[in-house]
Amino acid sequence: MKLEFRELSNGVRLIKLDGNMDIAGVGSVETQFYARCGGHNPRVLVDLSATGFVSSLGIRMLLQAIKTVAARGGRLLTLNPAPAVASTLDISGLGQFVVRGSEAEAAAVVLQPGK
Known about the structure:
Transcription Regulator spoIIAA, 4 helices
């Protein structure tokens, strides 16, 4: 799995995951992924448009990041998952953390106060 990171002009962190979130994929990006979600009041978008599969380990990684970011006063949302990945997120209860649209539209959602 490949992890790409950039910070948008509004301070939102964009993490793009490319590949499968299986045991090998999660193992190869987990430390870097959590590091990119750190700090105070982080606003994070995780682009899953190039992710083809999410295993229970991938769900665990996302859930842990969502909880950690929220505990630090921030918010993490996933962006544009493929249909199979979106279905897995829905079944796991993480469907509420999915947003669809452009990066700018998703950044506006993750920046909303009180969320």
